[in-house]
Amino acid sequence: MNIKKEIKNAIRHGIFLGFEDEEEEKQFLKSLFAFLVKKKNFCLFKDNDRTIVISSDVEDLGEIYIHAGTLKITPLTDQGFFKVFMDMLEFVAMRHKEELDKLNNLDDESTEDDESTEDDGDLWL
Fold it and tell me: What is the pLDDT of residue 97?
């Protein structure tokens, strides 16, 4: 895997999130906004809470938005943008892990429900 190429592709084409409606997209952006603020980024919403603008004390660094279920980031400057990009990736990875954990818990629960603890004398095949 060529990391440099993957980073360029993520910036150029975005990261597909698979959201099916605007409400899911807005909720994701609100959570991302809160995460970026905790990471000491200066942020503001624009476009009716559909775009996050990340700024330094001097200039805007980038814009983050979701289009057609794909998270996109637009660099507005060379300096400071990469930190914002890495913060965004950290958030996406964290959310992805949470979703995988939920799925694993559901699988574990369904497996436990399928197993019988009673010995009724019949053999299960």
Answer: 94
Assigned CATH topology for domain 3-101: TATA-Binding Protein (3.30.310)
Distances (CA, A) of 89 to 36, 37, 72, 96, 103: 11, 15, 11, 10, 21
Q: Which residues of 66-78 are buried (b: 16+ CB within 10 A; e: fewer)?
A: beeeebbbeebee
Task: Assess contact for 82 and 89: CB atoms under 8 A.
Answer: no
CB 19 within 8 A of CB 66: yes
Domain ranges of the chain: 3-101
What does the pLDDT read at residue 30?
96
What Rg do the C-alpha atoms of the chain give, in angstroms?
20
pTM, rounded to two decimals: 0.80
